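User: Here's a chain of 158 residues. Predict its fold as tokens.
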Amino acid sequence: MPVTSPTLVPRPPVIPLVLPRAPYVNPSPLPKLDRYPGRMDIRRDFQREIEDLSDEETELEEATIAIRDRGFQWLIPIGRHTTKQEEKNEAEDESEGSDTGQSGGGAPSVNEDGEENDESGPDLDASMEDMDEEGETGSDAEDVNDATDDLEERSSDA
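Assistant: Prediction complete.
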């Protein structure tokens, strides 16, 4: 049967508590104040600290490279058919092939007519007759007009 009390403090229980009292902790004393906080009594070894720092920097660089190159040998990016390592190997093979095929600096040679000579690819217009060699004695404007007339005649015949 519940008992109402006119105060907020509860009445002592009828059955005594079996739990022991909580231990009483004395406050710990404050640490002794130092005039120079963080002062070291020993001398610093700068050479050792520099070596430790360089070792930590090396470890950090290696970790960064490992993170950047993760999946370099086995991961195939979306939309690609090869891994990054295979693409790099193919690019190196292509660059080695193009280096051995060219004898100069890389810019195609230009003959006296101002045309580029590219020996690396097949000559696609070998079967066509060279219109520039014919009629070099006339003026350039007449040659252009003759070539245009020839093209118009060929297109009307077809």
